[in-house]
């Protein structure tokens, strides 16, 4: 198990930053596009609530909302054309809507604080559900929103800081912290999942490469075996031909060569019974001796060939 964990860690370490960041951008872009379109479409629609809650400023807020939607729409199409990082299509609308909400604090009365804080919370919860970016973006947007909110609250004499916190401000800060944690957690889990998937892909490619190498080696061995079989067959045929030649030679030894030897021995035997001078008897004796030696040699060769054939 330890070895498997180590191998997995090594494989994940092989995943380059460019690879997982590219996969992350592709994986999260569809969620960011949905979030961007939701902001573009629904933010102007909420001007209806401004008409009833802030009737004296609803037109100003409508123009503000339309401007936010227009800038967000331009960002969305610009990203598709110029291929800059996809998270900007949600960073821009989220930041602008946050500033828009902060600006609204300068227009409302104390009685509208709770409702507006609840609307702000809805924005943060929605962001937490859809966004997946590095934690620095959350810190940047939330910090900018907090500063803008503080400034616009100070500019509005109708509300106080105490009233802000009592009527939902503390809860708003808690929701902002929750949004930060939620986005950071989703981002980290998404990155881990992407790295694991890419690592698995690398492992599969390595396994496939090894399988191809093994197949090539098997094919090479198969070729060697086929060639070896051809060599063995050729050698077998050669041995069969030599064996056949030896058999023919053994037949010659056993029949054709020994027959004249036997004839010579027969003639020598007849000559030995004739009364001949001593010199001629000596010649016949040596002839008989040489013929017997030749007969033994032929018999020995025949016997050796017969043993080899067996």
Automatic annotation (TrEMBL):
Coiled-coil parts of chain: 200-231
Lineage, top ranks: Bacteria, Pseudomonadati, Bacteroidota, Cytophagia, Cytophagales
Keyword presence, Transcription regulation: no
Keywords tagged on the record: Coiled coil, Membrane, Transmembrane, Transmembrane helix
Superkingdom field: Bacteria
Transmembrane stretches, start-end: 31-54, 60-78, 85-108, 114-132, 139-159, 165-183
Organism: Pseudochryseolinea flava
Protein's UniProt name: Signal transduction histidine kinase dimerisation/phosphoacceptor domain-containing protein
SUPFAM superfamilies xrefs: Homodimeric domain of signal transducing histidine kinase
A GO molecular function held by the record: phosphorelay sensor kinase activity
This protein's record includes keyword RNA-binding: no
């Amino acid at each position: 198990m330890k070895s498997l964990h180590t191998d997995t860690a090594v494989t994940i370490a092989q995943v380059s930053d460019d690879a997982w960041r590219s996969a992350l951008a592709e994986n999260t872009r569809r969620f960011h596009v949905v979030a961007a379109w939701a902001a573009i479409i629904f933010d102007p629609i909420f001007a209806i609530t401004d008409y009833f809650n802030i009737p004296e400023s609803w037109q100003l807020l409508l123009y503000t909302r339309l401007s936010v939607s227009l800038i967000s729409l331009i960002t969305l199409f610009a990203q598709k054309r110029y291929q800059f990082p996809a998270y900007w299509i949600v960073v821009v609308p989220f930041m602008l809507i946050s500033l828009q909400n902060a600006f609204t604090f300068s227009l409302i009365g104390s009685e509208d604080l709770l409702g507006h804080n609840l609307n702000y919370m809805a924005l943060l919860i929605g962001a937490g559900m859809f966004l997946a970016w590095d934690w620095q973006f959350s810190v940047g947007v939330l910090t900018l929103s907090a500063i803008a909110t503080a400034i616009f609250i100070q500019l509005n004499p109708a509300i106080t800081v105490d009233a802000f916190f009592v009527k939902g401000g503390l809860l708003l800060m808690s929701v902002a912290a929750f949004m930060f944690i939620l986005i950071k957690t989703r981002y980290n889990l998404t990155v881990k999942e992407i790295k694991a998937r890419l690592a698995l892909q690398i492992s599969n490619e390595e396994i496939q490469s090894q399988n191809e190498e093994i197949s090539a080696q098997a094919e090479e061995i198969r070729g060697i075996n086929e060639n070896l079989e051809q060599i063995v067959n050729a050698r077998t045929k050669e041995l069969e031909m030599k064996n056949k030649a030896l058999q023919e030679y053994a037949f010659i030894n056993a029949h054709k060569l020994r027959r004249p030897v036997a004839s010579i021995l027969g003639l020598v035997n007849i000559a030995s019974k004739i009364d001949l001078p001593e010199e001629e008897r000596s010649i016949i004796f040596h002839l008989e001796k040489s013929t017997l030696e030749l007969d033994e040699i032929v018999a020995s060769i025949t016997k050796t060939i017969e043993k080899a054939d067996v």
